[in-house]
Amino acid sequence: MKNRLEELRRQKGIKQEELASALEVSRQTIGSLENGRYNPSIILAFKIARYFDMEIEKIFIYEEVEK
Amino acid sequence: MKKNLILASLLFICGISLITILPNSSIIFGMGCGFIGGAIVNFYKYIYVLNPKNKKQYEEHLKNEQNNLKDERKIMLREKSGRITYIIMFVVLTILNIVFTFIGVEKWIILTLWCVIAFKYICGVVIFYHLSKKM
Fold this sequence. Notes:
The structure holds two protein chains of two kinds.
Chain A: E1 2-3, H1 5-12, H2 16-23, H3 27-35, H4 42-52, H5 56-59, E2 60-61
Antiparallel strand pairs in A: 1-2
Chain B: H1 2-21, H2 26-50, H3 55-70, H4 72-103, H5 107-134
Helix pairs in contact in B: 1-2, 4-5
């Protein structure tokens, strides 16, 4: 799953630490999310969407893997 | 933090008691020194927190600690590491038991180790079904 977290964070002009603090997660989690190494839970995805005042689908792009 | 101070005080009293009651026993003396050391560290922490200069830093540290505790990625990692350790321990115990059987170690040791392996397995299955029912 791809996401636009880094892009949105940069647009807002905030640091990873600030975003982490606002979402009540660790800075490493934000880093992992931005690198695409970790997919968030639905609760965290909603928190992120609410924080950026956007719909989840606009932030997280789900691409089905073709078998 | 006051709770920590009470605990540190108790730890200090325990340490002093252990050292004075049984000064000739090296194990008890070591334990007592350990208690006193732990208490001193906690006292230092309390004094550090009381300093108004460190208040902001300490509050940030507490917030970070809370975030780290609730952080879903870290929770997932803890669960994953626990699962991997469980599997490794399973393999290690089994290998150890087989080696012990070939070496010819006393029967009760081998039997105990097999019981531990069986208990680990049964416990894993029971907890899985218990959690499955709840979810």
